Amino acid sequence: MDNPELARIPGVNPHVPDAARIYDYTLGGTHHFEVDRQAAEFMFSLVPSTPKWVRMLRACLRTAAQRLSAGGYHHWVDFASGLPTSDHVHSVLPNAKVLYSDINPLTITTGKHLLGGNPNTRYLECDIRNAGEFLHRPDVREFLDGERRVAFGANAITVFLPAEENRRFFADLYEWAAPGSKLFATFETKAPGLSTPKWEQFVGMFQRMGESFHLYSLREYLDMCGPWTPGPGGVMTVREFLGLPLSHITEEDREGVGIEFYAVILEKR
C-alpha cells in the first residue's frame, strides 16, 4: 500500500521510481510507491538474494553504531544515507549528533520530513566525490560542535565509485578527521571470472541509470581505504560481523557468482 504521508511531501512523484524509496522497500520499510516496488521486484527477479544482503548491510550499520557509541563516539557523519527511517543510525544513537547526507535533493527533502524537528539530527546535501569540501563547510562544523574525532558511515558506497574516486573519498575523510576517529565501511565482492546472464543484466541496469558499478577484490578495497587501518577484529564477512551462524548464507545467496559482503571498522591512529 502506498504511503499517503509520503505523497504529500513537495516534489515527491509517486509515478517515477526513486532509488532511496526502492532501497527502503528492499529493507522492508513503508516509504515507497507501487512504481518503486515494481522496480525493486525486477531487481529481485535478477538477483533474488538482494533483500537478504541489503538487510544484513543495514543491520551491520546499526551494529557498528552501537559498538562505536559504547566506545564513546557521540558524533556520527553518514554518507549516501538514503531515507533516515526508524531503523537508521539516529534510532540507535538517540543522544548522539547524527549528520546524514545524500546527493539527491528529493531524498534530502524526504529525509528532513522524516526526521521532523529532531535537534540531534541534520540532513545536508553532499556529493561524496567532494566529501572534503563538505566536511569543511561552516554548517557542518557548527552541527558537529567543532568536533573532529567522529565516527563515519560509508555503508554500501564503494561499489558505486571508480577506484580513484574511492581513494579520494577515504583520503578526504582521513585528512579532515582527528586521530582516534573511526570509519565503518562495507564492501561487495564476487568470485573473479564468474558471471551469469542475470548478473550481467543486474549490473547493466545500474549502468543504464548512469550509475558506476564496480566490484573490487577485498585487497583492492583495503588499498583504496588507505591510510585508514582496520581496527580490532579486522575485516569480517557481514555474517561474521553480525554473529550469525555459517548456515545463514547459502550457495543460492551467492547467485552463482560467489557474492560476498564484508564489514570493517577502520580507524585513524
Automatic annotation (TrEMBL):
InterPro entries to which the protein is assigned, alphabetical: SAM-dependent_MTases_sf (IPR029063), SAM_dep_MeTrfase_SAV2177_type (IPR006764)
SUPFAM superfamilies noted in UniProt: S-adenosyl-L-methionine-dependent methyltransferases
The protein, known as: Methyltransferase
